Amino acid sequence: MSEKRVLRKLNKLASRIYSKIESVRDEMDDLEIEFELLQRQIKKLQAKAGNKVTASDEVEVIMEVDEDNDDDEIDLENTSAVNITPKKF
C-alpha cells in the first residue's frame, strides 16, 4: 500500500471515529439532563408522599472520563476495510 493511500484511509477512519465520538457526547449530554429531571421528579414525589429524602436514599453517580487513550492502537497492517455498524435499538 502506498503511503498516500494509507494516510487517506487513516484520515477517513479518524473522521468516522470523531463523528461517532461527537454523537456519543451529544447522547451523554441528553442522558445527563434526563437523569437530573428524573431525580427532581423522584424528590417531588417523595415529598408529596410525606417521605423525607435522606442521604441513604440518594443515589450518587460518579462519571469518570478515561483520558489515557495512548493504549488504544489500531493495527491496520492486515485490515482491508474497517466497518463500524451502529447498533439498532
Tell me about this structure:
There is one protein chain. The longest helix has 46 residues, at 3-48. The chain is mainly α and 89 residues long. Helices cover 52% and strands 0% of the residues. The two termini are 38 Å apart. The chain has a domain at 1-62.
Q: Which descriptor suits the 3D outline?
A: rod-shaped
β-strand percent reads under 5%
Structural class: mainly alpha
Radius of gyration from the CA trace? 22 Å
Mean pLDDT: 79
Helix content: 40-55%
Q: How many strand units? A: 0
Number of helices: 1
The main pleated sheet reads as:
none
Q: Which stretches are low in confidence, meaning pLDDT under 50 for 5 or more residues running?
A: none
Q: Which quaternary structure do these chains form?
A: single chain
- The end-to-end span amounts to 38 Å
Order of helices and strands: H
